[in-house]
Amino acid sequence: MSTDPTYLHALAGECVDLVSQQFGRRLDWSPESLSTLDEVCADLLADGPLTEERLDLWWRLVGAYTGEVVIRAYAGEWVEHETSPGAPAVAALGVTGFPFGLAARVLDGEPYKSLASFVRALPAIAERVATD
């Protein structure tokens, strides 16, 4: 997948549109909106695991939207990272985050994984990194 910011922003916009159309919920690009997206992911999984095609679509959309929220909230940017070949990472506050990896874990139904918690935790993680 490309790390082109225009492409990733467009994917995130598709997420906003699809969540509105299919779930009647509004994503407003704020960190708080990731709680809504967590709920949408839970709704997607309510009937069991997603088919491969649906999983790939939602993985792209959820990862791109989560990354865009981080970028907007913390003046970050999309980057390539050797630990996530094929999936862009975000760099913000001196920390590299992996929204597509998190999206995969959330969409696999991994317990205690949350998009909203990821964004809320970044400042604390950055602070720890800066003091180490």
Furnish the topology, listing elements before pairings.
Layout: H1 5-23, H2 33-45, H3 52-74, E1 77-79, E2 89-92, E3 95-97, H4 99-107, H5 115-131
Antiparallel strand pairs: 1-2, 2-3
Structure in words:
The protein has 132 residues and is mainly alpha-helical. It is built from five helices and three strands. It has helices at residues 5-23, 33-45, 52-74, 99-107, 115-131; strands at residues 77-79, 89-92, 95-97. The longest helix has 23 residues, at 52-74. The chain is globular, with a radius of gyration of 14 Å.
Keywords:
Four Helix Bundle (Hemerythrin (Met), subunit A); 3-stranded antiparallel beta sheet; 5 helices; 61% helix
User: Can you write the helix and strand succession as a string?
Assistant: HHHEEEHH
Overall body shape: globular
Q: Can you summarize the main beta sheet?
A: 3 strands, antiparallel
The helix count comes to 5
Helices and strands: which structural class? mainly alpha
Query: Could you tell me how far the N terminus lies from the C terminus, measured between alpha carbons in angstroms?
Result: 33 Å
Count of separate structural domains: 1
Helix fraction?
Answer: 55-70%
Named CATH architecture:
Up-down Bundle
